[in-house]
Design a protein that fits this description.
- It comes from Pseudidiomarina planktonica.
- Strand 5, helix 7 and strand 6 form a beta-alpha-beta unit.
- The radius of gyration is 21 Å and the shape is globular.
- Helix 2 crosses helix 3 and helix 4 packs parallel to helix 6.
- An 8-stranded mixed barrel has the order 1-2-4-5-6-7-8-9, surrounded by 5 helices.
- By secondary structure, it is α/β, with parallel strands linked by helices.
- The structure holds ligand C2E and magnesium ion (MG) (3 copies).
- One magnesium ion (MG) binds next to strand 2.
Length: 279
């Protein structure tokens, strides 16, 4: 019985779990502070055409904490999502993105670029999401066509009808949707055709061994065919080598993103870089 097994066998809070929970709590409160004291940053990674022309950027959150060090969004975004902090955090990202687009409008070598922002499921389902985006666009006085929202298949799991309705409201204003990490989730083909998408982003896991793995090649071919028949742009993520790019090109991918073309860097870096190379 419980008494005989004693405290030592309590399954709930073993030291390892206790450590994980403490770290989570620490991250959550440090992130809240970072957001309030404006210590977060957006880095941008270029998206390019087959000809190597930069046509857009993806905004990726960066956070350096004095105690925790450089924090990966892969770790802190899920914590923000489960704590609710994702709502103010997501609003900050959107505000920042719209203000970047507004600056770019004045610059001949930047004004045509799109800017893609990652949206979490909880953020997308929040009742104020659509009005907040429309507010940001109006306030920054930018073209809605320049703002892309990256959503994932997980968003479709519950409240499919609500998801489609919110997407349509934004699409009607010109905002573009990309389906991120495509191929790793649960979206069925019948769902896909109901969504007002603009782009499919082939997940980097299919790109990694594209030059040697026939299975990955088959998946990429299928995604390209699907994109073609649904009238969607197809972009490959995580392209690190020339060989991967050549292979993807040969398969018919016409948009690329990855370390081969550029690492995520602060906006100012790209302002300079593109001024030198694209004007
Ligand atoms: P994602 O949206 O799929 O972003 C792509 C991730 O792959 C980024 O990681 C990027 O730095 C990395 N990457 C880009 N090119 C390459 C490459 O050639 N090779 C490899 N191995 N990796 C590459 P990062 O910045 O660590 O972000 C991880 C994830 O965190 C993102 O995945 C996205 O889901 C999420 N995230 C980042 N910023 C935000 C944000 O502002 N809001 C939300 N909701 N999620 C975000
Ligand atoms: Mg684009
Ligand atoms: Mg993304
Ligand atoms: Mg992705």
């Amino acid at each position: 019985d419980a008494k005989a097994s004693g405290r030592g066998t309590m399954r709930f809070f073993n030291p390892r779990m206790q450590q994980r929970i403490s770290r989570r709590i620490h991250i959550e409160s440090a992130l809240r502070e970072a957001l309030e004291s404006d210590q977060l940053e957006l880095h941008l990674q270029p998206q390019v055409t087959q000809q190597g022309k930069v046509i857009g950027m993806e905004a990726l959150l960066r956070w350096h904490d004095a105690d925790l060090g450089q924090m990966s969004p892969g770790e802190f975004i899920p914590i923000a999502e489960s704590s609710g902090l994702i709502i103010p955090l997501g609003e900050w990202v959107l505000q920042r993105a719209c203000s970047l687009l507004s600056e770019w409008q004045q610059l001949p070598h930047m004004k045509d670029l799109t800017l893609a922002v990652n949206i979490s499921p909880k953020q997308f389902r929040h009742p104020k999401f659509v009005p907040h985006i429309l507010h940001c666009i109006r306030q920054a006085n930018i073209l809605p066509e320049k703002l892309e929202l990256e959503v994932t298949e997980s968003m479709l799991i519950d409240d499919m009808a609500g998801t489609i309705s919110r997407m349509n409201q934004l699409r009607e204003r010109g905002i573009r949707f990309a389906l991120d990490d495509f191929g790793t989730g649960y979206a069925s083909l019948s769902h896909l055709k109901l969504l007002p998408l603009y782009q499919l982003k082939i997940d980097q896991s299919f790109v990694k061994e594209i030059t040697t793995e026939k299975n990955d090649e088959a998946i990429v071919q299928t995604i390209i065919a699907l994109g073609g028949s649904l009238g969607l742009e197809v972009l490959a993520e995580g392209v690190e080598t020339e060989a991967q790019m050549e292979k993807l090109k040969a398969l018919g991918v016409n948009h690329f993103q990855g370390y081969y073309f550029g690492y995520p860097q602060p906006a100012d870096h790209w302002l300079q870089e593109l001024e030198n190379t694209q004007s």
